[in-house]
Write a structure and sequence with these properties.
137 residues, alpha+beta, ATP Synthase, domain 1, 2 domains, 5-stranded mixed sheet, 5-stranded antiparallel sheet, 10 strands, 31% helix, 43% strand, elongated
Length: 137
């Protein structure tokens, strides 16, 4: 089976560069799998879990916070603001992130502060749901 070249990149560094059998990306319209030969596309990435699959099993998982994915027939590149290995993130850390976002929403004064706090709260809730789902798999 041909491999797909995969890169996971944050603004300050490359997180992972590897050859994979398949990559599952949390796209804004739903998760999508990328195999070698995939039709070219560009998609936004929602907060969730990205999986790198080798030999029919998940080799690596990352918690990602939004971004963009570019797919060609031979490669997949995900650009994200935040990517953390799944095993390094605990449910308690994500619960604290949600509590912090809730406090920021309460303390927000301007419309811009309220909008940012609301977005941060939505991201925190999405990440908690994703972590809980994938932790049980």
């Amino acid at each position: 089976m041909a491999k797909v070249s995969f890169q996971l990149v944050m603004p300050e560094r490359e997180v992972l560069a590897t050859e994979a059998d398949m990559v599952v990306v949390p796209g804004s319209e739903g998760d999508f799998g990328v195999l070698h030969g995939h039709a070219p596309l560009i998609s936004t990435v929602r907060p969730g879990v990205l999986e790198v699959i080798q030999d029919n099993k998940v080799e690596r998982r990352f918690i990602v916070v939004g971004g963009f994915a570019e797919v060609t027939t031979e490669r997949c590149t995900v650009l994200t603001d935040e990517a953390t290995p799944f095993e390094e993130v605990t449910a308690e850390q994500l619960a604290e992130r949600e509590r912090t976002a809730e406090r920021e929403l309460v303390d927000a004064v301007t419309d811009a502060e309220k909008a940012k706090a609301q977005k941060d709260l939505e991201v925190a809730k999405d990440l908690r749901r994703a972590q809980a789902y994938y932790a049980s798999r």
